[in-house]
Q: What sequence folds into this?
């Protein structure tokens, strides 16, 4: 009887504290704008940004959906390719020595510098933007998954050997599960990087998306609109990472049960 | 069933190398319960790992069922000091792991798994995750797992080393009951003198590095044992004798 309200209360507290932080930040910003009479072209106040959003919500929603779509496509490709690549380099030492330095080398190239090249290769459609989001995100997935696949305790590996499990069984029943906490840490980083990639892609060439909104509004010195797009990006970024965290909790119920057991 | 002659195991090469086992010769028959007893780092675990086929001997011959060991032998069950349970599977799935890895149908072994868990007093934890269990319960699950396929050879590497004394006593009794029933040939590594004497038909005492066999002692206590047997004069005689061996090796000072 006592537990339900207290669980609700602690849940409320957990989500309200970060919100409180954001609220205080916004209020200080508003006060500063009014107190020092800052020109909106330099720094619009939060109420102005909010009014900008309220004036054309459908249009902003459309741009947001487009950018989120690009982000998720790039992220999805990065997860699929990244996990497969990590499995390959962990399972076959020779391929690791062959491919990993090349992969690190390619990753050291600033991806933003590749964007114009992708326009030449893939045209001005969605593909180059997804490709940039993918390229920026994939490194985190590979590094963290490979680390996770190697994190199997020695006793567990000995057990698998004495049970004469096939390599596939060991991979599917042991290594992938061991890798999951690391994998999800990597996915959170990859998700926020994919969003960066999508925006970069839209900067380079686009008629849609939040990146395009920022660039075109900047061209017209419409600072309020730039801030409106940035505000959406901040919210979207938090929401996407939270979504990964929710999938993480669902995918690892044994971790969840440990939380319950620990308190 | 097991025949080891002049087994040597060296780690590393040249002067920097360490000799872990130096000429181990040992024969173990079907149905025996043999404890390998010695101080930490005496190579008893290494010998066990050689038998399990996860370590290869540097010299000498090591036969299981007349065949030289190269890789884990048929019908092997093994238990480890850290229970090596898989956190992401529930208790039942963990116990069924040998069937799964052996390419057998898990459903066929579920009754056996449940029976073992019931004998270990874990009926109500069949669907719990390992993290929800105490250390003693986890080791019981690991014990059930190693017995699932009715192994012909059970190798146990200090399985109760990390447990408190009371839990350890209880698990000794449980293990005795489970292995007695099946007459499973068991090799049990420990550094506890009373645990070794209580469980075994034979206790093989190892010297510190390099590991050599100091004495091979037959334990003539009744086959069925209860904890009270530890208060008997015979039991005390065995433990006193073994402690004497350790004193002679300079491992215990009074």
A:
């Amino acid at each position: 009887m006592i537990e339900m309200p207290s669980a609700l209360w602690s849940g409320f507290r957990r989500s309200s504290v970060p919100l409180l932080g954001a609220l205080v930040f916004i209020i200080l910003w508003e006060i500063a704008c009014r107190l020092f009479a800052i020109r909106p072209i330099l720094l619009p106040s939060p109420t102005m940004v909010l009014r900008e959003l309220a004036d054309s919500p459908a249009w902003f929603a459309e741009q947001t959906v487009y950018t989120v779509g690009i982000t998720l496509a790039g992220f999805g490709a990065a997860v699929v390719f990244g996990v497969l690549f990590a499995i390959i380099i962990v399972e076959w030492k020779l391929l690791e020595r062959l491919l990993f330095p090349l992969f690190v080398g390619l990753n050291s190239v600033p991806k933003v510098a590749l964007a114009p090249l992708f326009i030449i290769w893939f045209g001005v459609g969605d593909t180059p933007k997804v490709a940039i989001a993918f390229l920026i995100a994939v490194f985190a997935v590979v590094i963290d998954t490979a680390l996770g696949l190697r994190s199997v305790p020695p006793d567990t590996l000995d057990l698998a050997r004495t049970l004469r499990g096939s390599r596939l069984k060991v991979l599917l029943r042991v290594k992938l599960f061991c890798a999951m906490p690391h994998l999800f840490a990597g996915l959170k980083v990859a998700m926020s990087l994919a969003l960066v990639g999508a925006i970069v892609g839209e900067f380079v060439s686009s008629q849609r998306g939040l990146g395009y909104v920022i660039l075109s509004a900047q061209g017209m010195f419409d600072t309020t609109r730039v801030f409106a797009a940035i505000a959406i990006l901040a919210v979207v970024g938090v929401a996407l990472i939270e979504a990964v965290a929710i999938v993480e909790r669902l995918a690892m119920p044994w971790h969840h049960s440990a939380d319950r057991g620990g308190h | 069933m097991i025949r080891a002659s002049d087994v040597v195991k060296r780690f590393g090469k040249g002067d920097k190398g360490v000799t872990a086992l130096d000429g181990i010769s040992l024969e173990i028959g079907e149905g025996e319960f043999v404890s390998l007893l010695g101080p930490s780092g005496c190579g008893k675990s290494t010998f066990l790992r050689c038998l399990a086929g996860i370590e290869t001997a540097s010299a000498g011959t090591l036969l299981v069922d007349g065949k030289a060991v190269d890789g884990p032998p048929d019908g092997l069950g093994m238990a480890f000091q850290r229970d090596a349970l898989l956190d992401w599977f529930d208790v039942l799935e963990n116990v069924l792991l040998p069937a799964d890895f052996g390419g057998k149908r898990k459903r066929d072994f579920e009754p056996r798994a449940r029976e073992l868990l019931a004998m270990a007093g874990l009926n109500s934890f069949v669907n719990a995750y390992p993290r929800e269990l105490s250390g003693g319960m986890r080791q019981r699950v690991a014990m059930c797992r190693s017995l699932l396929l009715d192994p012909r050879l059970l190798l146990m590497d200090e399985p109760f080393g990390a447990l408190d004394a009371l839990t350890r006593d209880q698990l000794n009794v449980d293990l005795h009951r489970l292995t007695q029933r099946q007459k499973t040939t068991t090799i049990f590594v420990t550094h506890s003198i009373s645990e070794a004497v209580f469980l075994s038909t034979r206790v093989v005492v190892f010297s510190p590095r390099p590991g050599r066999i100091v004495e091979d002692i037959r334990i003539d206590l009744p086959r069925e044992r209860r904890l009270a047997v530890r208060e008997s004069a015979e039991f005390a005689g065995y433990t006193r004798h073994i402690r004497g061996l350790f004193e002679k090796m300079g491992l215990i000072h009074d």
